[in-house]
Amino acid sequence: MSRVKDLIDVWFDSGSMPYAQWHYPFENQDKFKQQFPADYICEAVDQTRGWFYSLHAISTLLNDDVSFKNVICLGHIQDGEGRKMSKSLGNIVQPWDVLNVHGADALRWYLYTATPPGQERRFSSDLVGDVIRSFTLTLWNVYSFFITYANLDKPQALTVTAATNDLDRWLLSELNVLVRDVTNAYETYDVTNATRPVEKFVENLSTWYVRRSRRRFWKNDSDSDKQAAYSTLYTALTTIAKLIAPAMPFLAEELYQNLVRSVDETAPESVHLAEWPKVMDEFIDESLNRDMNLVMKLVSLGHSARQKANRKVRQPLAAAAFSVGTATERKALMNNVDTIADELNVKEVRLLDSATEAVSHTVKPFSKQLGQKYGNKFPAMQKAILAMNAEEVASTFMAGKPLEVTAGGETFQIISEEVEVKAMAKAGFAVAEDGAYVAALVTDLTPELIAEGLAREFIRRAQDLRKTADLDVVDRIELFIEASAS
């Protein structure tokens, strides 16, 4: 053995990799041409001036071409507090400590969804555990719900060919939008947009579709509506299994084996051998998606208003009134009053009579922001803002527009971050706002509403006793009641 006297920079060796691995150009010319340039390369950001550069530099010199078509450049991983991981700090996380507790799928999913690849990301065992709590368990609970009732009812022909129920139509529309967007993200090496939208879909699947469809699964008779619910949910779950397969291979395989292989022996033996889902454009209804997203947003605001008033959802209320941005949204609201009323447990859903029916506003300029920005002009601006109609100021900001203020002979454009606008509910109302959207609940309770609330509370407690006794969903019970006369 003898020492090499002359040594080229070691990065030259790394940049030569595409050629050296095939001993090109001395042999394997055809193989080289088939695989060069590479489809993509992935490394950390410190390789920008290292491997990424040397590959392109040598390829340019030899081929006058790039060495790879796409790059995923990874940011550095920090600890849970945002500090650089270091042995001296003792904040390094051992991979097996995370894998043994949370599994490989949760670890992968966290890394794919935490931040876009090029950004730094925090990492800890607890952050990986959040994946299980916020996503994996939600998906697993939906899956468990399906198989619990499917094992009881033994539904047949779970393929969806058409949908008439609006809830089914909406879910199938959103599902095909999801397939379209996730597919495009994978094809463009967009890691976060290939995974994050699945989380949102599963959340809506659980908190909206399944919850609103429960009575359809609970029916004693297996009618067409019940069959449609089974088929729609089955389609969603099997599609999700395929969409998460690249990122969560073990969970995807478990779902696929039980949902697909157990009922169809001719199906590919693994989810990783199955065809990627195809977009069915005939199921996509963007208008329906927008309307349902609006309904969910208004329901969420309604629940926020309930919490402010300390009124449980089991307590019926007289009315919920809403203010929305456009005529199209007002039409969508009125087309879905039954759904909103059922979700919020109110007797009536309507539009607010005016912007000031249930809420009033106060306006206060932020002296720090405006003072630093405009200096000695601020006092005159402050006086002008306070003299304006507070409701008109609030309406301007809620519409996403800047506020025009004239002071000292000049006109200024004031943005919403420079002024504090507070909403105050009027007596008898609980209010929640989000931009142009306002939800107002009538909080006064009549004796009839109170009695109905007590009945719902009784049902809830009976159901809790069933759970405590570990009774199955099909178990019949005898119920004994003791109550006061009043």
Could you explain how this protein is built, in words?
With 486 residues, the chain is α/β, with parallel strands linked by helices. It has four domains: 10-74, no CATH class; 133-284, Isoleucyl-tRNA Synthetase, Domain 1 (Orthogonal Bundle), CATH 1.10.730; 287-356 and 427-453; 359-425. It is built from 18 helices and twelve strands. The chain has helices at 10-15, 17-20, 29-35, 51-63, 95-102, 104-113, 125-153, 166-187, 191-218, 224-244, 249-261, 286-309, 327-335, 337-344, 367-374, 378-387, 390-398, 447-468, and strands spanning 38-44, 68-74, 77-78, 121-122, 320-323, 349-351, 359-365, 403-407, 410-414, 419-425, 429-434, 437-442. The chain has a four-stranded mixed beta sheet. A two-stranded parallel ribbon has the order 1-2. A two-stranded parallel ribbon has the order 3-4.
Report mean pLDDT, rounded to a whole number. 85
* Strand arrangement across the biggest beta sheet: 6-5-12-11
Instruction: Just name the CATH architecture of the largest domain.
Output: Orthogonal Bundle
Derived from helix and strand composition plus strand pairing, the structural class reads: alpha/beta
Residue runs with pLDDT of under 50 for 5 or more positions: none
Distance between the termini: 101 Å
Number of domains: 4
Q: Outline, from the CA principal axes?
A: globular
Largest sheet: 4 strands, mixed
- Total count of helical runs of at least 4 residues: 18
What is the CATH class designation of the largest domain? Mainly Alpha
Helix content: 40-55%
CATH topology of the largest domain: Isoleucyl-tRNA Synthetase, Domain 1
Could you name the CATH homologous superfamily of the largest domain? Answer: Isoleucyl-tRNA Synthetase, Domain 1
- Give the DSSP E fraction (strand runs of 2 or more residues): 5-15%
Report the count of strand segments: 12
Helix-strand sequence: HHHEHEEHHEHHHHHHEHHEEHHHEEEEEH
The Cα radius of gyration reads 30 Å
